[in-house]
Write a structure and sequence with these properties.
alpha+beta, six-stranded antiparallel β-sheet, three-stranded antiparallel β-sheet, globular
């Protein structure tokens, strides 16, 4: 999808898909690394839910894997992000998400709206993205989105969810899905017995967003920051610290 087409699709439908943004062989190498990271007990302290088994989210991947750096600062993605959030848009978090066989569907929701007014802002407060590190299919739990739902400017109620018609956004590994923070979406069910779905979730916010409200987000370690190229440093210099509480807690 051409950049302007991607921007227009996201603006209209609430999401867009950039296919083959990185080569499949690169995604395969990332998948191998991420499955290992999830299985390393040393990383379980930064799981979103330490007790999660079938659906796991690992925060702080930016410190554990340099391969994700290219995705965070990917020029095609940043062009879309900056169109909506401005040139000073910055990274919120990069985390990996493992959907295992027989994982149930996740709840349909909008992002980062739990403490916003009932009438959500017209100005975008977030552009989220999920990189397909393995192929995304209907059967293995491809992300569900509800087209046009960002235009409702509200969190989905139970009746909204019951009456909505989410679609599965499927794609080849190496593709990336972007969506407006207000778009209703969720993790699809993995109905297979043997297919593991791995993804890299990268969230971007405007400079005015207070990241302290986002539970679980991890800092960029100073030693990690020092190794980064300048374009990536510009996206993360606001969250450099040795401990999460040095940035995200009073």
């Amino acid at each position: 999808m051409a950049q302007q087409d991607a921007i227009e699709h996201l603006e209209t439908f609430g999401y867009c898909l950039i296919e083959d943004a990185i080569p499949a062989v690169q995604a395969d190498a990332m998948a191998e690394q991420y499955f290992q990271l999830h299985q390393d007990p040393a990383n379980h302290q930064t799981f979103q839910d330490p007790n999660a088994e079938l659906y796991q989210t690992l925060f702080g991947v930016i410190n554990l894997d340099e391969m994700c750096w290219e995705c965070i600062a990917h020029p095609q993605v940043l062009q879309v992000v900056r169109h909506f959030l401005g040139d000073s848009a910055r990274l919120g978090e990069a985390c990996t998400k493992w959907v295992k066989p027989r994982a149930p569907q996740g709840g349909i929701h909008s992002d980062s709206t739990h403490d916003l007014p009932a009438r959500l802002p017209e100005t975008p407060w977030m552009i989220n993205s999920i990189w397909m590190i393995t192929d995304f299919t209907v059967e293995n739990g491809a992300t569900l989105v509800v087209p046009f739902s960002h235009r409702a400017r509200r969190r989905p109620s139970q009746s909204d969810i019951a009456e909505s018609h989410p679609i599965s956004v499927c794609g080849r590994r190496g593709s990336v899905l972007l969506w407006h923070g207000g778009t209703w979406h969720g993790q699809g069910a993995n109905t297979t017995d043997d297919q593991h779905r791995m993804a890299l979730n990268i969230a971007y916010y405007p400079a005015w967003w207070n990241l302290m409200r986002e539970g679980g987000h991890q800092p960029v370690f100073p030693a990690t920051f020092a190794r980064m190229p300048e374009d990536l440093q510009a996206l993360v210099r606001h969250k450099v610290a040795k401990r999460r509480e040095d940035i995200y807690e009073f």
